Amino acid sequence: MSFKDHADNPFASLSPAVWRASTVVFDSFEDFAARKKRQPDGYSYGVTGTPTARGLERRIADLEHARHCVLTPSGQAALMAVVMGFVRAGDHLLVSDSAYGGLKAFASYWLAELGIDVEYYPPTVDGEIEALIKPNTKMICIEAPGTITMEMQDVDAIVAVAKRHGVLTMMDNTWASPLYFRPLEHGVDFAVEAATKLFGGHSDLLMGSISMNDFSHYEILRETQSVLGLAVSPEDCFLVMRGLDTFPLRMHEQSRNTLKIACWLESHPLVTNVLFPALESHPGHRVWKEQFEGSGCLFSFILKPAPEEAFSKFFNALEHFPIGASWGGTHSLVAYYPANQQKARKFALTDQPIIRISIGLEDPDVLIADLEKALRQYHSFTEA
Ligand SMILES: *Cc1c(COP(=O)(O)O)cnc(C)c1O
């Protein structure tokens, strides 16, 4: 009896095979006894993936210009896995104050309780991060631009400091994606993507990826995936591979439409600030232009102050922007971040509420008309 696919099977297809497995079976007693030696690339148990996961890891590594990639069940799991793989009690961890909220919650409520010295740094600290480095600093968590408030970080300057002090760097690169920024080419050790967003591209799955060049880091992260049980569904891998076929086309189109809509909003009298580094008015524009090759489909803006009811009018008037978290899919989305959440930050950018929109593949003129109509509602309310 053979459990193997037949080598002489004449079937061929453009579509990758979905290999399901918890159990991996072995040819011999000796093979089974030595199964751990198959890591990090091979197959010993379903938790570290089947050939379907390896195929997707290869494709993401190629996009990132990386040697290795490890998949995780979500973007949040990818961020946590990098920290859990390398940071231990007694270490000092530097996290950008505008990093993804889930990473900050993990750092504040778990890592700090486990004896890790967690410190949030101002997102625009750039090379001056050197003053925050301690003898026990282990890792710097970068995200550019930052979640919601979109501060740019000078990745080159931070990496230069980290390298001088032997500190690891990880970057959440979900906004730019490897099409517009490849962290490893800038010396970052770990490039993290929420594949949930642009790679999947259709708002119907969750996944994360960690790409890197160093083989010993790869071995540690494959083991971390195994120990923490970070299994990824082969069906979801299949869907992300399908998403990747159209990813560059979607990204370029969504990026162009986003720029158009951001420029329109910037000229609107009710808009006080558009938080989007591709605009010349953004304080991080110079850094973005020097280091990035394009801009994403997600940005935020701040309106002239008004009571919360005016925001309610605005959101409920929108017909082409469903209200929801996440982003990067073919459908546009809008989300609200109240003022108290902004004020509570250590290095707050604003004390005003923030509106964040993700631009999908709809006609940008239809989206602009929709925003214009909703802004009229906001305005009429503020006048009343
Ligand atoms: C959504 C997001 C994450 C988390 O990804 P999930 O797959 O939803 O867990 C991490 N970082 C950024 C920048 C994100 O936008």
Task: Explain what this protein looks like in three dimensions.
The structure is a single chain. The chain is of the alpha/beta class and 384 residues long. It folds into two domains: 29-242, Aspartate Aminotransferase, domain 2; 246-379, Aspartate Aminotransferase, domain 1. Helix content is 38%, strand content 15%. It has twelve helices and eleven strands. It has helices spanning 29-33, 51-64, 75-86, 101-111, 155-164, 177-180, 215-228, 234-266, 285-291, 308-317, 339-343, 364-383; strands at residues 68-72, 92-96, 117-121, 137-143, 168-172, 190-194, 208-212, 271-275, 298-303, 333-337, 354-358. The chain has a seven-stranded mixed beta sheet, with helices on both faces. The radius of gyration is 22 Å and the shape is globular.
Pick out its properties.
single chain, Aspartate Aminotransferase, domain 2, 7-stranded mixed sheet, 38% helix, 15% strand, alpha/beta, Aspartate Aminotransferase, domain 1, 4-stranded antiparallel sheet
CATH architecture of the largest domain: 3-Layer(aba) Sandwich
Mean of all residue-level pLDDT scores: 96
Q: Indicate the CATH class of the largest domain.
A: Alpha Beta
User: Which percent range describes the beta-strand content?
Assistant: 15-25%
Give the % helix: 25-40%
SSE order, one letter for each helix or strand = HHEHEHEEHEHEEHHEHEHEHEH
Q: What's the shape? A: globular
Number of helices: 12
Q: Give the CATH superfamily of the largest domain.
A: Type I PLP-dependent aspartate aminotransferase-like (Major domain)
Strand tally: 11
Radius of gyration: 22 Å
Overall structural class, as computed from helix and strand content, comes to alpha/beta
Poorly predicted runs are none
